[in-house]
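Changelog note: in this version the structure field was regenerated for every chain. One regenerated record is shown below for reference.
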Amino acid sequence: MVNWQEWIHVEAPRILKKCGIRPGDMVIDFGSGIGDYTIPTAFLITNGNQKGKIIAIDDDKNNVNKLRKRAQKYKISEVITNILNEKGIIINVAPEIADAVLIFDVLHYFTKNERAQLYSEIYRVLVSNGLFITFPNHHKNSYPLWELANMTLNDIIDEIEALHFQLNHTWKGKLIHDHAWYTGTILSFRKK
């Protein structure tokens, strides 16, 4: 069972810091779900009275509403902007505003062409040298599913690097997946 206080205030911030997220950052969480990564990111980017912000984007209205309620519960509503995105891979924000984009456990939903479009959107919204951080679950070596089922982690890295990103950091360890503990790999890329 997940100890949510430990996850939100200790484990997730430790992981996110290793991946390059810093207090004061502007972060986009694409496919945010109910906020298992959004909430701890919000605490990290506002640590030390910093003015960080996070935009949480999801295509499920119920998830958006649940995240909004969780943000109120944790008293961080002013840090999180919720966006219901029914347009698939479009990230409907201005260009070059994000220090980092998180995409955790959603790449397997998209075809190769859709992923290429999504990577282009990420590139568009990231500042120079910004971070694209992803937990690409459900690939060939991690419970294969849908569009990533025949790809290895190295294939995913190659696919992303081919589109103007450079692998910056790889982290493997205890994560949250479907609201339970899970061992997975997070990849952090820099915008070239």
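Spot check on this record: Strands lie at 26-30, 53-58, 80-84, 98-104, 126-135, 165-177, 180-191. The first strand starts at residue 26 and ends at 30.
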